[in-house]
Amino acid sequence: MSLSIRKLVVIVLTVGIVILANLWAVTHWLDQAGVIEIARTAREHFLTGTSVAVITALLILLVNPRRARSGGSCPVCSSSLPRGAKYCPECGGRV
Ligand SMILES: [Zn+2]
User: Fold this and answer.
1) Contact 65, 1 (CB under 8 A)
2) What is the pTM of this model?
3) What is the CA(73)–ligand 1 centre distance, in A?
4) One domain for residues 55 and 13
5) Spacing, Cα 60 to ligand 1 middle (Å)
6) Spatial separation of the C-alpha atoms in residues 72 and 84, rounded to whole Å
7) Counted domains in the chain
8) What are phi and psi of 87, to 5 degrees?
9) Which domain holds residue 82?
10) Which of 18, 63, 73, 79 would be a feasible disulfide site paired with 90, CB 3.0-4.6 Å?
11) CA-CA distance, 59 to 57, in Å (whole number)?
12) For residue 66, what pLDDT is reported?
């Protein structure tokens, strides 16, 4: 994950935490603006598929880049393996 994407994730999470901290005021403001009714309609029609897609995208973003680059762990000694390794660099066991 590049630095700009990490910055974007931090900004989004910070805004999310601020919104959660002021949840009652935000909810009241959204209710006055009519957003609650729109959200209720959207939930009835779109929530299941949309939420699954968003959660899947977030889980993909949470993958550790070091782990994603590595080839897993050795079944013998559990040390991390470089991608494409056929033998463990620590114990020499065949992967
Ligand atoms: Zn090993």
Assistant:
1) yes
2) 0.30
3) 8
4) yes
5) 27
6) 9
7) 2
8) -130, 150
9) 70-95
10) 79
11) 5
12) 60
